[in-house]
Design brief:
328 residues; mainly alpha; 13 helices; single chain
């Protein structure tokens, strides 16, 4: 399917960004972190664990659904990259043109940002930004007002998309497609989760709010199914790295399903003394999943365990600690 998206798909944007001052490129190299997968899932986990009634009617349901929506978005990216299999701009392959005025530590950071391998269409960062910030804007519906939330989400997503072009790891068409895929993934995921705003003819009592009856399980399942398709396409094309990415999507979707079965959906906020160790353990498992990507089984097990821990955490005190305390 490479012919559907050309390897030479630039429209002159690379020449424009080459003319930008170095400081602008460095700033946007930092902006791109706002949609790094580790940052987005960490942000979503914090919202899921600590979100309260001032943000939405059902913080746990809203938070889990946001995680599911972004998982769907990344599954779509994995499928798209394996399906179209087109390269990134030549500048992403190196060598990196590092500004001479950057100190050594920042030089290494900058080089890591502007060099990237793998396929380029659609942009994972643009997709993740549109999905994560869009989902939070829609689901945390008591913060600010709808217009401000959506404008803020759009501003961050566009800034991230621009950063990917400015640091020359994506073409303009890659990030535009990513923004569309991310936005579409949110709508589809919320429809699967039962959000009345995206189900024509469906109504929900106004006093309960649109998040009160959400069930993220179908959205997590959708992400797993799309990731299975992505793994099949990647394997057929001999794209080993994309098989691993799709496997992580399968494990994330499956882990979300398992974790949510342990949660009622109306749990209180998680205490920091419980959340911080869990975040450290889940983060270590996630890093290990990527570090040990040569073993797909290890990657799948580590990712699944990390996601189950994150999603099930609100129910852990009630299901584990309180019974233990009661018997003691």
């Amino acid at each position: 399917m490479t012919g559907l998206v050309s390897a030479e798909r630039g429209v002159g944007e690379i020449a424009l960004v080459d003319a930008l001052p170095e400081i602008v490129v460095v700033v946007f190299a930092a902006v791109t972190h706002l949609a790094d997968p580790w940052f987005l899932f960490g942000l979503l986990a914090i919202g899921y664990w600590f979100g309260g009634d001032r943000l939405t009617a059902s913080p746990r349901r809203a938070g889990a659904t946001a995680i599911a929506a972004v998982t769907c978005a990344y599954a779509a990216v994995a499928l798209g990259k394996a399906w179209f299999a087109v390269p990134r701009p030549p500048g992403a392959m190196g060598p990196a043109d590092v500004p001479t005025w950057l100190p050594g530590l920042l030089s290494a950071w900058y080089e890591a940002q502007v060099l990237s391998d793998g396929f380029g269409f659609p942009s994972g960062h643009a997709t993740g930004a549109a999905a994560a910030y869009g989902a939070m804007a829609l689901l945390y519906d008591r913060a600010w007002n709808r217009r401000r939330r959506l404008l803020a989400a759009a501003a961050v997503a566009v800034a991230v998309a621009a950063s990917r072009v400015i640091i020359e790891v994506h073409y303009l068409v890659d990030v535009l497609a990513g923004l569309l895929v991310g936005g579409g993934a949110v709508v589809v995921a919320l429809w699967f989760a039962g959000d009345a705003r995206f189900r024509w003819g469906s109504t929900a009592p106004a006093h309960r709010g649109p998040t009160a009856d959400l069930d993220p399980t179908p959205a997590f399942l959708l992400a797993a199914v799309v990731s299975v398709a992505a793994a099949g396409v990647a394997a057929a094309g001999g794209h080993t790295s994309e098989v691993v990415e799709a496997g992580i999507g399968i494990a994330t979707g499956a882990g979300g399903v398992v974790g949510w079965q342990l949660v009622d959906g109306d749990e209180p906020t998680v205490q920091a003394r419980v959340a911080l160790p869990t975040l450290a353990v889940a983060g270590a498992l996630w890093v290990g999943a990527y570090a040990l990507s040569d073993s797909l089984v290890v990657t799948l097990v580590a990712t699944t365990a990390a996601v189950v821990a994150i999603v099930a955490l609100p129910a852990i005190p009630e299901r584990v600690w309180e019974p233990v305390i009661g018997r003691s």
